[in-house]
Specification:
Largest sheet: 6 strands, antiparallel, barrel
Distance between the termini: 69 Å
Order of helices and strands: HEEEEEEHHEEEEEEEEEEEEEEEEE
Helix content: 25-40%
Strand content: 25-35%
Strand order of the largest sheet: 2-12-15-14-13-16
Mean pLDDT: 86
Shape: rod-shaped
Number of helices: 3
Number of strands: 23
Structural class: alpha+beta
C-alpha cells in the first residue's frame, strides 16, 4: 500500500513539473510574440476623431407662434413652464410645451388699465367737442337772428337821416362780419376737435387691439406639434439641450424639432487647429456607444465658415455635418456619435506602430529581429497618425521588429547590412 502511494506521488510530481514548465514556456512565448511586430502592408488613414450627435438631415421646427413677434405685446422673453419628455412620439396637434403666462397676464392688466384711461379720454373728447361746437352754433344762430333785425332796421332807416342810415348799415355789416367770423371759428374748432378726438380714438383702439393680441398670445402659450414625429429638444447657447425654465422669445423661437428619420446626419465640431484638414466629401466612420458592433459609413457634407466657442473646448471649433450613407431602425436622434473623419488615405503602404520607432543620434531606427539576432535598422518614414506610421524605405513586408528597446542582456549586433 505504501509502495502504491509513493508511486502516485511520483507521477503527480512529474505532472506538476511538466505543467509548470509548459506554463512558463507558454508565458515566455507569449511575451516574445507580444514584443515583436510583423511588418505588413495596409491602407494608411489619417483620422480626426470627434464626438457628435445624431440628427435628422431634415426636420420640422416647433417654434413660438408668430404673434410673439408683435412688438405691441412688449413681452420679449417667455419661460418654459413644462415640456413633453424628449423622444416622445406625438401626433399633429398634440401638446408639446407650455410657456409661463405671468408676464403676459401682467401686461394684460397694465394694458387694460391704460385702455380704460384712453376710453375715458375719448369720451371726454367727444363730449367736449359736442358741447364746444354746439355753443358756437348757438352763437351763430343768435347772430343770424340779430342780422334779420338789423336788416329790418336798415330797411326802415331809408326814411331817416343819412347819418342814421349809415349807422344802421354799419350795425348790419358788423353783425354780418361776426357771423362770418363765428362760422370760420366753427370750422377751425371743428377740425381741431375732430383731430383731438381721432387721436384719443387711435390711442384707445391701439390698447383695444393690443388686448386682442395679448389674448391670442395667451392662447399660444400652449405649443402644439405642427406635424407627427419624435420630439427632439432644440439646443441653446453653449450647445446644451433646452430645458424647463429656459427663456425663449421672438429671436430664439425654436423649442424642439421633429426630425425626418429616413435620412440621418451626425452634427459634430472640429477644433480650429484641425479644420483646414477637413473638406466636403471626406469619408467618415460613425459608431454609437448605444449600438456596439455597428459602424455606419458617412461623408462630410458641410463645414461652417465661422468658428464658435463651445463649452468645454480649449479653442474655437467649427461645426461639421456628416451625412450617414445608411441608417438603422435602432439609430435614433439625440444619440451620441463617435466620428472618425478620414482626411488622408494612402493604399498599400508598409505600416508599423509608432512605438516601434526610436531615435538614435538624429537617425530614425527600428530594432530588426533576424536570424535569431537583434539589429539596428535605419528607416525613412512617411505620413503618420496617432497609432501608425508609413515606412517608405528600410523595411520589407513580413520583417519582424521589436516594439520596445532591447532589454538588459539582449545583445544588439549593430546596423543591419553595415
Amino acid at each position: 500500500m505504501k509502495h502504491i502511494l509513493h508511486k502516485y506521488r511520483w507521477v503527480f510530481g512529474v505532472a506538476l513539473l511538466l505543467l509548470v514548465a509548459g506554463t512558463g514556456w507558454f508565458i515566455h512565448r507569449s511575451r516574445i510574440m507580444q514584443s515583436v511586430y510583423v511588418v505588413k502592408k495596409g491602407n494608411f488613414e489619417k483620422i480626426i476623431e470627434t464626438k457628435g450627435e445624431i440628427h435628422g438631415k431634415k426636420a420640422i421646427n416647433i417654434v413660438l407662434d408668430d404673434i410673439f413677434k408683435d412688438s405691441d405685446l412688449q413681452v420679449w422673453e417667455f419661460r418654459i413652464k413644462d415640456m413633453v419628455p424628449e423622444g416622445t412620439i406625438v401626433k399633429k396637434g398634440d401638446w408639446v410645451a407650455t410657456l409661463d403666462q405671468v408676464n403676459l397676464n401682467q401686461r394684460i392688466q397694465i394694458n387694460r388699465e391704460q385702455m380704460d384711461v384712453r376710453q375715458a379720454q375719448l369720451n371726454d373728447a367727444r363730449i367736449d367737442s359736442a358741447l364746444t361746437l354746439s355753443q358756437i352754433r348757438q352763437r351763430i344762430a343768435q347772430l343770424e337772428f340779430d342780422l334779420r333785425y338789423r336788416d329790418l332796421d336798415l330797411q326802415q332807416s331809408k326814411y331817416e337821416s343819412p347819418a342814421y342810415q349809415r349807422k344802421m348799415q354799419t350795425a348790419y355789416n358788423q353783425t354780418l362780419r361776426q357771423i362770418e367770423r363765428q362760422k370760420r371759428d366753427y370750422e377751425l374748432r371743428k377740425m381741431d376737435l375732430e383731430a383731438r378726438t381721432r387721436r384719443n380714438e387711435d390711442r384707445y383702439n391701439y390698447h383695444r387691439d393690443t388686448d386682442v393680441k395679448l389674448q391670442k398670445a395667451l392662447e399660444a402659450t400652449n405649443i402644439t406639434a405642427p406635424e407627427a414625429g419624435m420630439v427632439i429638444y432644440a439646443r441653446v447657447r453653449g450647445n446644451r439641450k433646452i430645458r424647463i425654465g429656459d427663456e425663449v422669445g421672438p429671436w430664439r423661437p425654436v423649442i424642439a424639432t421633429l426630425p425626418d428619420l429616413s435620412v440621418l446626419i451626425s452634427e459634430t465640431f472640429v477644433a480650429e487647429i484641425d479644420i483646414a484638414k477637413v473638406k466636403p466629401g471626406d469619408s467618415a466612420r460613425i459608431t454609437v456607444d448605444a449600438l456596439p458592433g455597428l459602424t455606419f459609413p458617412g461623408t462630410v457634407s458641410t463645414i461652417a465658415n465661422i468658428g464658435q466657442e463651445l463649452q468645454g473646448a480649449d479653442s474655437k471649433v467649427f461645426a461639421v455635418t456628416i451625412d450617414l450613407s445608411h441608417s438603422d431602425k435602432k439609430l435614433l436622434p439625440g444619440m451620441t456619435s463617435n466620428n472618425q473623419i478620414i482626411v488622408e488615405q494612402v493604399p498599400d503602404q508598409l505600416l508599423i506602430p509608432r512605438k516601434c520607432l526610436f531615435l538614435e543620434e538624429g537617425q530614425t531606427i527600428v530594432y530588426l529581429k533576424s536570424e535569431g539576432k537583434i539589429w539596428k535598422k535605419r528607416v525613412t518614414t512617411g505620413p503618420e497618425n496617432d497609432e501608425m506610421v508609413v515606412i517608405t524605405h528600410g523595411l520589407s513586408d513580413k520583417d519582424r521588429i521589436l516594439n520596445h528597446p532591447p532589454g538588459e542582456g539582449e545583445k544588439v549586433e549593430g546596423f543591419y547590412g553595415g
